[in-house]
């Protein structure tokens, strides 16, 4: 099988609107959480989120085209542009270069929910009592979850494999794995992959509140996402996107591309347990990590850093750490573990995309991003684990693993390593 390398990345998060800004946010332990500005959240139990700030999509997306798009597809196009530019695959007009064979390039993109904002807006217009319902003709194309992949493919003339993965918060991990497989198996030379989510809306906040999934720390939103802290009370909803350009090693080398990291292995599994709660013993998560190591041909002791799912929920955090201990044995005490959701919030279907990029940046820049907002130790968590609390750690990172788990029991584990001939 062909080796798969990463040649470009693009990031849009609550702690940075580009890869350099995101890197700075990860290094400094910035919190992206604050009061919701996109609607009046006063009636809701949760009134804060990790919103993207001061973002002008027109710097990378045509203004006229942008008016027809949902926020999540704009985010997809924006980050894909940054990733392809970094990969050296765009010309001066922003179109793909001759190095991209359109028939052997594609896009597999993730979104857990899709265009919820557009759906909510159209329902509100109908509910306002305006007579015969007249919906925007772009409502359906704006709403459906495959349009991230569709718009990227159309914008950059990628005629190879193109579709969406929708598996809740594991969506991004599954998209990356599927895109990498297309290259591994020789079906494509270049794949754009990642995920985007933009559901800081009344329906999403209200729905997650009804499940008691969100933090309600309205008096201190900046510290509300606190994975592994004894006083964690739920996740903080985030928005944004992450894009990665994958290439076969041969294709990247033939054009003299800069290789950022290698996709070493990946695996998926299911808890087969509950619609929203993780398996308390972490059986499915353990299986995903073990099989990812096997796929990569690596041992537990080869891993330097685990970027966890770590959502800041009472059940989820401890279940994942239990699974990590089962999968890694004594090697777990020699690696760093952190949850970057403490900074970005939980991006649902896009979480794996930006967290995979965090792994790539950790490898490139030899540091481990922190788990911020830790105040009180949880007596149910092994104190010998290095959870990288509050401050980034400078250390060589040769191999990093990213975990993402979704409602429905979906699990994904992806391993990245420093590229070597």
What does this structure look like?
The protein has two domains: 258 residues, 3-Layer(aba) Sandwich (Peroxisomal Thiolase, Chain A, domain 1); 152 residues, Thiolase/Chalcone synthase (Peroxisomal Thiolase, Chain A, domain 1). Helices cover 32% and strands 18% of the residues. The strands form three sheets. The protein has a ten-stranded mixed beta sheet with strand order 5-4-6-7-1-8-14-13-9-10, sandwiched between helices. Strands 2-3 form a two-stranded antiparallel ribbon. The longest helix has 16 residues. It starts with a strand and ends with a strand. 59% of the residues are buried.
Question: Topology, please?
Answer:
Layout: E1 4-12, H1 19-28, E2 34-35, E3 48-49, H2 63-66, H3 71-86, E4 105-110, H4 116-127, H5 139-143, H6 147-156, E5 162-165, H7 171-184, E6 190-197, H8 202-210, E7 240-248, H9 249-254, E8 261-270, H10 283-296, E9 305-307, H11 314-328, E10 336-338, H12 341-344, H13 351-365, E11 367-368, E12 393-394, E13 399-406, E14 410-417
Parallel strand pairs: 4-5, 4-6, 9-10, 9-13
Antiparallel strand pairs: 1-7, 1-8, 2-3, 6-7, 8-14, 11-12, 13-14
Helix/strand class = alpha/beta
Structural domain tally? 2
Strand adjacency order, main sheet: 5-4-6-7-1-8-14-13-9-10
Strand content: 15-25%
CATH superfamily placement of the largest domain: Thiolase/Chalcone synthase
Principal-axis shape: globular
What's the rounded overall pLDDT mean?
96
* Topology pattern, helix = H, strand = E: EHEEHHEHHHEHEHEHEHEHEHHEEEE
CATH class (first level) name of the largest domain? Alpha Beta
- Our count of helices gives 13
Low-confidence stretches: none
Main sheet record: 10 strands, mixed
Calculate the terminal CA-CA distance, rounded to whole Å. Answer: 16 Å
Radius of gyration: 20 Å
- The assembly state of the depicted protein chains is single chain
CATH architecture of the largest domain: 3-Layer(aba) Sandwich
CATH fold title of the largest domain: Peroxisomal Thiolase, Chain A, domain 1
Approximately how much helix is present in the residues? 25-40%
Please report the total strand number as a whole number.
14
């Amino acid at each position: 099988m062909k080796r798969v390398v990463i040649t470009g990345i693009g990031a849009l998060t609550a702690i940075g609107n580009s890869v350099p800004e995101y890197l700075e946010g990860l290094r400094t332990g910035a919190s992206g959480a604050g009061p919701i500005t996109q609607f009046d959240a006063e009636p809701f139990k949760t009134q804060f989120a990790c919103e993207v700030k001061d973002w002008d999509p027109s710097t990378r997306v045509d203004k006229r085209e942008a008016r027809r798009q949902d926020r999540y597809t704009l985010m997809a196009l924006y980050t894909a542009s940054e990733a392809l530019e970094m990969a050296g695959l765009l010309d001066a007009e922003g179109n793909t270069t001759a190095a991209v064979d359109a028939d052997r390039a594609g896009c597999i993109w993730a979104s857990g929910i899709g265009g919820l904002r557009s759906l909510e807006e159209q329902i509100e217009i109908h509910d306002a009592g305006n007579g015969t319902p007249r919906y925007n003709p772009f409502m359906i194309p704006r709403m459906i979850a495959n349009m991230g992949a569709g718009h990227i493919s159309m914008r950059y003339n990628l005629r190879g494999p193109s579709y969406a993965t929708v598996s809740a918060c594991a969506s991004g991990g599954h998209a990356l794995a599927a895109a990498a497989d297309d290259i591994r198996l020789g079906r494509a030379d270049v794949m754009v992959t990642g995920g985007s989510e933009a559901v800081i809306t009344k329906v999403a906040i209200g729905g997650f509140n009804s499940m008691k999934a969100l933090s309600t720390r309205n008096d201190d939103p900046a510290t509300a996402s606190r994975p592994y802290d004894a006083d964690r009370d739920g996740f903080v909803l985030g928005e944004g996107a992450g894009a990665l350009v994958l290439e076969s090693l041969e294709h990247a080398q033939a054009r003299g591309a800069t290789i950022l990291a290698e996709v070493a292995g990946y695996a998926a599994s299911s808890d087969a347990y509950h619609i929203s709660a993780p398996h308390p013993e972490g059986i499915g998560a353990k299986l995903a990590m073990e099989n990812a190591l096997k796929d990569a041909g690596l041992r537990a002791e080869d891993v330097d850093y685990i970027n966890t799912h770590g959502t800041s929920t009472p059940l989820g955090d401890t279940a994942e750490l239990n699974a990590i201990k089962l999968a890694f044995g004594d090697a777990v005490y020699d690696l760093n573990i952190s949850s970057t959701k403490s900074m970005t919030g939980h991006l649902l279907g896009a979480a794996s995309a930006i967290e995979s990029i965090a792994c790539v940046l950790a490898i490139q820049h030899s540091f481990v991003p922190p788990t911020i907002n830790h105040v009180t130790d949880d007596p149910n968590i092994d104190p010998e684990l290095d959870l990288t609390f509050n401050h980034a750690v400078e250390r060589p990172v040769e191999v990093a693993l990213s975990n993402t788990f979704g409602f429905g029991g979906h699990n994904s584990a992806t391993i990245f390593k420093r590229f070597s001939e």
